[in-house]
Amino acid sequence: MRLQSTVGHRLPRAALLAVLSLVALGAGSAAAEDVIYGPDGAPTVVQRKLYPMSNRWELGLRLQTSVNTPLVTQDGALLDVSYHTNEWFDIGGEVFYNYTALANLAEVIREKLPQRNSTTPKDEIANADQMRFGAAIVARIAPIYGKLNLASELNVHFQTYLLLGAGVTQLHHESVNLCAVGGTGACPDGSFLTTDQFTFVGEIGGGFRFYFSDHWSMSTEVRAYLYPAQYKADNDLTNPLSGVSTTYMGSMVSFALGFARLF
Amino acid sequence: MRTHALIVAALAAFVATASRAEGPVAPVAPAAATEAAPTEESDVQAVHVVEKRPFTEGGRGELSLFAPIQVNTKFTTHIGIALEGAYHLRENVALQIGAMWNPVAQQSTLTEELVNKVNQQPLAADALLLQAGGLIGLELMPVYGKLNIFDGKILKMGFYINVGLGIAKTELQLQSSTSQEGRTYGDTGIRPMAGLGAGFRVFLNDRFTLRLEVRDLVYSAYVSTVNGCTYTDTKAISAQGTSASVSSGCSIAAFGANPKGDAAVAAAQIATPSADVVNNITVFTGLSFLF
Lengths: 263, 291
Hints:
The structure holds 2 protein chains of 2 kinds. Chain A is mainly beta. Chain A contains 2 helices and 10 strands. The radius of gyration of chain A is 30 Å and the shape is elongated. The N and C termini of chain A lie far apart (66 Å). Chain B is α+β, with helices and mostly antiparallel strands. Chain B has helices at residues 2-22, 30-34, 109-118, 231-240, 259-270, and strands at residues 61-70, 76-90, 93-107, 129-149, 153-175, 184-203, 208-223, 274-290. The longest helix of chain B is centred in the first third of the chain and has 21 residues, at 2-22. The model of chain B is unreliable at 10-39 (pLDDT under 50).
């Protein structure tokens, strides 16, 4: 009787605890998420973001390099401060500085420039602008938040974003083929036409943010800087004052990689 | 006794959670699915549960249509269309066979500027154009994930890498767009090609996926003949036109309406045979159908 009594008390107690645990788990999961059924009929789960962004400030530093300017090398850094108004939108300001120079290809072209003459007008080679520094207001929209399983126990949360910005930049232009010294001889070193100007710049791009923690993340992005650029057409190569200035839309597409701190 | 009861409860909870995680209709609780209840003695054990995927690619075929666009357009520009078939041996391993054709395969703006403004042009090997190509290869998709869009729709995704070997049909642009005849091309033959790519596959449902991939198409570029004609042949054609005596395999007709002009350009390009390995970095954006 005693044994029966003991067993009779033990099993219901264990079962009760099991039921309570299940109820607790079920309640917890029910509160944490809603069920969404996909197009295949299988359920999927909306999980709350592990790293919320709403109402937080962000300070970011990225290194960038130009990928579409074979005549010019442009490598620099980008510092930005932004405020996240909600989970998928932030707006802020940024400044950037690039170390710029003519690329090796431009030097090779200069070494093989044909003899200058006044009989055949020539256009200046375009897309040789050097974007040295600037500042812009940038807005980012991040519609996609996701999670990758790199290994069985390592989840990486990420966000993709698109950006749009507008600002001012300083352009240094050093002509590849127009000489600032008149005559028919070869152009002396350091004597090619140069100009410097401030101009409007627009930005468009997109990228990924990979979260390390609630405060730190790494981002990688591709962005295009668009600006009004100019080259001189119909030049008398012996006369640096000749030629007609022609405007086109210049672009510098950069690849950037850096880190950000959320506050 | 109490400890035993707690263990039983924890096991029951775990089994219940695991069955929900793997079951066909129940949602998965992220916290509960990844952690078991600790015992009173703090023998904490992290128990991981594999969430069953709603569908699998394993054992299925896949047909993909891409719009490849070259992104390193220094001397050349390529825009095309590509078709790829794949068979997924497992969820994360697939055999691939694909072909691409570039209706836009031409010199870049910079190359034409160099020709027109400073009478220069890149070496033939550096400006070799990829007219068409095919690759057979293997794909590995080691990373899975999921994403949601504006906190709503949830989609599965995978990150993959692939390698392939194949052939490339190449050509050389002889006249620029500003010439009287417009752009003309000369055939430079078939070359071996390799591809190395990495990309994302986003599953819209169990049939359709969006794909975004960057692939480095590497092909050898040794240019010593154009339209099968050697330097000597092209010099003869540029001087005598269609009446020139050329070696077997040289096609004068392939130089088109202006054989003298095109052959002269070809002669200048191959006067010193050039060799290089061309890296054509291309973004493939496309849609796949799983069957």
